[in-house]
Amino acid sequence: SELTQPPSVSVSPGQTARITCSGDALPKQYAYWYQQKPGQAPLLVIYKDIERPSGIPERFSGSTSGTLVTLTISGVLAEDEADYYCQSAGIDGTYVVFGGGTKLTVL
Amino acid sequence: QVQLVQSGAEVKKPGASVKISCKSSGFTFTDYYMHWLRQAPGQGPEWMGWIIPDSGKTNDAPRFQGRVTLTRDASISTVYMEMNSLTSDDTAVYYCARGGEIQYQLPNGDFDLWGRGTLVTVSS
Fold it and tell me: Which of helix, strand or coil describes residue A67?
């Protein structure tokens, strides 16, 4: 995959979860983040690296630094347990790529 | 209500074709890139391509070129994805998703609205 994520992240309720995504295209292309719960379609939680769609709680935030983007979930709730995927365009912008996904476990 | 409604689950034999529909409502269908993605069991999403509903112009992911056909019927706000020569590796949930506004955004950005998915099972 052109975007690399850790397979899993575990946190206790109320803690901060950070999920990283690295890729050579990220300095040139925006990153997007999706939350996916079992049996559901992905849900956009961050767009254009740092923007939050309406209806997404403020505890979700995004940041970027070079080839690394990070999804941060502050004050994690049990309901945040899900798979999270980063997505971007390829380095030439002509196609779409996804990371392999990170399973967030709330202990 | 802003939504994408996909057709129902399909079971196909290897070598067959499948055609899935995705009907949009609640927004101006022709203003947006419409994408198709799939997700195999236990895997992440995989992008397949997009279509511009007004013109019918498409852009397919390289690995699907020649095997996938994206079409639309703008009169009923519906896009279609047809895949031929199915194998067991094509067993997946297939999603349509709304991309960016054509007038303002590049095609390969985010997907802010998804259908509920269509399970395609390929089995002999």
Answer: coil
